[in-house]
Amino acid sequence: MSLFGWLNDQLLRMQWLSDLVTSSVSAVGLDPATRLGGSVQFFVYDVLKIFLLLSVLIFAISYVQSFFPPERTRRILGGRSGLWANTLAALLGTITPFCSCSSIPIFIGFTAAGLPLAITFSFLISSPLVDLASVILLASIFSWPIALAYVAVGLVIAVVGGTLIGRAGMEDQVADFVRTTPVSDTDQSMTRAERLAFARDQVTEIVHRVWPYILIGVGIGAVIHNWIPATTITALLGQGNWWSVPLATLIGIPMYADIFGTLPIAEALVTKGAGLGTVLAFMMAVTALSLPSIIMLRRVVKTPLLVLFLVVVTGGILGIGVLFNALTPLFL
User: Fold this and answer.
1) Sequence ranges of the domains in the chain
2) Which of 26, 33, 148, 236 has its CB surrounded by the most CB atoms within 10 Å?
3) Which domain of life is it from (predicted)?
């Protein structure tokens, strides 16, 4: 366990980087114990750590993802039904490092290919909400139990949400053009060199897409961590407040960011006394219920189905938030 703890601290939490940044901040005349120095230390350390981990993780996950292009994933899910099919769709969603908006074209392809709505929505919910990179990044900031718990509850929301939507019998609530969208049957295997090139390109594309949100998220986290009193955060988002989970969910909806941009904010909120369930609800709302993704989804499904999706996912997020606030002592 001591070896695991050392590896976790040095490779995931990057304690060596934290010490290096702290020394550098002190060397330029700033005291990390002050608000300004602490903000600079928090910002530089979290930005470097997230970008380093993100680049390595996205490369590794994209290499794995190259074995599961949309056509192959569709064929794996084709002909399956029931809880197992929803679970498989949710699990396949975890190996796709997409934001909610970029998951919608895959949703269109799956629906056009005739996959049941239960399966396609389980994939659509899981893909932006949970991915393998989020497990490592959450562990690097919080702990492995919290990281695994986040993934578990994300999968539960995806499976249960897809199942409920499938049982509602709303196949006719999908936009007409979706059913007639051409579906590619090509599934060309890649050479090792092509997979490496694909992984490299994914790193470039995803980092280019998310870097503004990471900088903004770390900046907000630095302000929360060093300038906002813990009593203020506890009064608004403390786990004992019944309104904290709905408020955090509501705040998260207008924001648009990958989970990578929400992590520094979540870290600062938990440090200042926000409930764990409240923070998880905020992260899930940002990734699964962002306004841009809702607007895009409205173009491919009709209003009744969109409303059902929002009700199911929001209800799941609120329930998970309340549950984890009650179970916080088990994790922190």
Assistant:
1) 34-182+191-330
2) 236
3) Bacteria
